[in-house]
Amino acid sequence: MPADAHGGNARQRVRTRRIGRATRRVSSAVLPLKLWQPRWFDGVALVVGSTAPDLAYVLDGSGLPVWPFSHQVLGLVGWCLPLTLVLGWLIRRAAPALAVHLPQAGPFALRDYGALGGVRHRWPLTVVSAPLGAASHLLLDQLELRVPWTEYAMHVVGAVVLLVLAIRIGRRRLIRRWHGAPPPRSRRPGLFWGVAGAVALPLIAVTPFLPGASLYHTTGARLLCAVGAGLLIASGAVTAASRRRRLVLAGSSRRSATVAPHPCSTQRGCRRRAALSVAASDLPTDSGWGSSQCTHLPQTDRYAEWLGIKEVLR
Ligand SMILES: [Zn+2]
């Protein structure tokens, strides 16, 4: 299976082996655009787009017609654009919770990247940046195919350029200058790294047994995705836990206010009883409100407002 994982001939396999190495180098090829004109480009879309063609390798052996489509001009719109939009959205959603669990890492200023969560570029900017990043990938792949000796040189140069640009962005605190400070997020390292490990480690463990595992770029792309999935889901878990905690705290602070017993507690026949009963069951027993109490107006409205459940009663 590995030999024919892409469903192509030997020439295609050689081609695939070569162009599979482009990912790290390509990101460094598009980052200068963002540094040159920060307002003209969506940096996340540029970087994700530049890796999107090679992410098709994750599906090697699945029979899905993603390769060589992902490396064709039509694939820029049919594969790279939608994939980049989805991944970019996920990355932005995860960025604040993810960044706060990373080390600052000195000149890299990794925690600044949490600010990406609050960025909303105009959609034309994103829709242009994504295929642009992917097109830079295809261009470098073509150069590599036509001039094979450039492969290793570009690999080394790309890695060095990426490192230099990342340090430049970090040292100058460019993420903060472009997008402001990261939104505050509470750290929950136990939950974050626990979920990240629980998701990523099993995926990594099965990687050697998947179709095409002997192709190093296929396995490389899968490992990258396994780690990425772990980090994204861990960020989601921390965000959800923090939100739930905030709601509980907000609820308990509201409930701690003095609540007078409902004056119409013996009245019957209120048509809103059922709706309010549901809400009342959420109250502490010493609040003076019980599920059998009347939901008579106008007390009901005040009560509902206090609970923040007006929409339930409508
Ligand atoms: Zn490629």
Give a description of the structure.
This protein is an all-alpha fold. It folds into two domains: about 1-185, no CATH class; about 260-314, no CATH class. It is about 60% helix and about 0% strand. It starts with 9 loop residues before the first helix and ends with a helix. Mean pLDDT is about 80; it is low at about 1-20, about 255-300 and about 310-314. The chain binds zinc ion. The site of zinc ion has 7 residues, from helix 3 and helix 5.
Q: What's the helix count?
A: 12
* Oligomer kind: single chain
Going by helix content, strand content and strand pairing, the class is mainly alpha
Rg, rounded, reads 26 Å
Which regions are unreliable across 5 or more consecutive residues at pLDDT < 50? Answer: 1-20, 256-300, 309-314
End-to-end CA span: 60 Å
Biggest pleated-sheet summary: none
Percentage beta strand: under 5%
Helix % is 55-70%
User: Any idea how many domains?
Assistant: 2
Q: Could you give the count of β-strands? A: 0
Ligands bound, unique: zinc ion
Mean pLDDT: 79
- One letter per element, helices H and strands E, the order comes to HHHHHHHHHHHH
Layout of helices and strands:
Elements: H1 10-19, H2 23-36, H3 43-55, H4 73-99, H5 123-146, H6 150-171, H7 174-179, H8 189-206, H9 216-255, H10 273-280, H11 299-307, H12 310-313
Helix pairs in contact: 2-3, 2-5, 2-6, 3-4, 3-5, 4-5, 4-9, 8-9
Bound molecules: zinc ion (ZN).
